Amino acid sequence: MKRLRETLSQTWLSIQSSLFPWLSEELGPLTAKQQELVTALELIRIEEFIMTYRGYPGRPAQDRAAIARAFVAKMIYNLPTTRALLERLATDKSLRRLCGWENKHEVPDEWTFSRAFSEFAKSRLPERVHEALIRKNYAEVLVGHLSRDSTAIEAREKPVKKPVTESAPTRRGRPKQGEDRVKQQTRIERQVSGMTLSDMIADLPTACDVGTKQNSKGYKESWIGYKLHLDVADGGIPMSGVLTSASTHDSQVAIPLAYMTHERAVNLYDLMDSAYDVPQIREISQQLGHVPLIDVNPRRNQALKEEIAAENKRSRLVGHKPAEAIRYHERSTVERVNARLKDEFGGRMVRVRGHAKVMCHLMFGILVLTANQLMTLVT
């Protein structure tokens, strides 16, 4: 973490001492939001991941780099729609120039923005930029705690009806001599049987459907849309994310997320709530060299539930807190990241349809949130 702060401090010093004064001479005094946008754009360098079409035959496409920078600005300013972004670009000269357009008439129309966004979603642009940002800054950094959780993403589209599958009738009792009964593997069992990471991701459901969960007050809540699963490191830095159908159980995404994050950074502890209390998840965490700290889920075991309650009561009476329980409190980091994504970076304002576009929209927000949190470690 010390090495990470040193690297980010050098970047922040360069931005503060050179870039801000130069831009202030060109555009006038920068507002707080403009400084935040400049810092994010300088840190993520999204234009380096966009292919240019100059020199190719045919009509040249609009400058995709400027449009991508504008989508980053959309998340910084927490604008609800692309139309609101265009209205802001039409009236804010400084913002327009920061994105890459000198004059108002150079800004493309809404349809061009829509086509460009489709291209970004198809090429997974914000996901690739985010992965490169994490790999660059965490190449030689040891992460202490990695918190894993999901959050509901409401979408404006119709849920896909699940097809009715007729299961073959199963016989009760012991099988007859010579009878071979094949038990179908669960998704988690398939994941630990040797699937590659790409196969695990492809096997997850991605259609829009209805999700249900129990809130903190014990009441059930339902929503139409998707579910975003995140791995978050100390300091509130999102390390990786996967978007699935709203009805997907959290435990089915834990193993792909673990492998995805393991390729980007090294961590010590995996913090998860009781939804991830599955033996295979614990085994994979230990195989990757981590210490899994997972809240125990007694399920229908009433004796185990009473035993856990009695143990917690005894610990409170003697004022004892195990080290694992103290470390487990760090899991609130992922909940704060989910809240910031929804409140400040467009997580509640999903106006696109389809898994790829919804993921692209959310990853633009996660990308900006990551840059913001990295700079917070320094400032």
TrEMBL record:
Chain positions covered by the region annotation Disordered: 153-185
Transposase IS4-like domain span: 215-369
Coiled coil: none
Gene Ontology MF annotations: DNA binding; transposase activity
Pfam families tied to this protein: DDE_Tnp_1 (PF01609), DUF772 (PF05598)
Basic and acidic residues composition-biased segments: 154-164, 176-185
Biological process annotations from GO: DNA transposition
Ranges for domain Transposase InsH N-terminal: 44-117
PANTHER family linked: TRANSPOSASE INSH FOR INSERTION SEQUENCE ELEMENT IS5A-RELATED (PTHR35604:SF2)
Protein name: Transposase domain
